[in-house]
Amino acid sequence: MAGMIAWTRHRLASARKLAYDRTARLFARERKMDHSSPAALPTLISLLLCDQVIDDRMTNKKSAIGLFNTIVVNSTPARLPHLAVMATLTEIGSRTPLELRLVSDADNDTLISTHGAVEAPNPLAMVDLVFAMQGVQIPRPGQYAFELHAGDHILGRRRFHVLRAQRKEQ
């Protein structure tokens, strides 16, 4: 039993040292980075589409409610009553301007565009961004995507489909 405890302590100490070494390397790399280079871009961890995001102020936890990949509409153009996009970013080295776009994959038209900036207390921080929208107009059935841009660089995109409901014959 004593050997097992010593082995576990050794593994925990090794894991802590490895985590410390990774953190130290990340901070050292951050200090050396040229913030105009693509290497200074934030890393997109996730990009979710849902009906709403609930932000619990007591626990600082966010809940994405009604995740989806497809929207079914009765007719087009269609107006979506509510929609939320949640993005999680890390490795944010400095204040970074962002743009969220809703684009049509068929013709690459930008339907919606919103701008802002993100910053973090340190490069290891995870920052959640919530974009809540109402009345988004979808012109026709097809494939669409939300794209998150930092300057001229696309950090990521999330596709979704808009389908017209099948009418039942009577």
Structure described in brief:
With 170 residues, the protein is an alpha+beta fold.
CATH class of the largest domain: Mainly Beta
Segments where pLDDT lies below 50 for 5+ residues?
31-36
What number of structural domains do the residues give? 2
Q: Strand pairing plus helix content: what structural class?
A: alpha+beta
**Total E-strand runs:** 12
> Averaged pLDDT, please?
85
Q: What's the alpha carbon Rg, rounded to whole Å?
A: 21 Å
Sheet having the most strands: 5 strands, mixed
Helix content: 10-25%
The number of helices is 1
Our measurement of the CA-to-CA distance between the termini, rounded to an integer number of angstroms, reads: 74 Å
What CATH calls the topology of the largest domain is Immunoglobulin-like
For the largest sheet, list the strands in their spatial order: 4-12-11-7-8
Q: Please tell me the CATH architecture of the largest domain by its name.
A: Sandwich
Give the strand content: over 45%
Tell me the overall shape.
globular
Helix and strand element order? HEEEEEEEEEEEE
Distinctive features:
170 residues; alpha+beta; 1 helix; 5-stranded mixed β-sheet; Immunoglobulin-like; 3-stranded antiparallel β-sheet
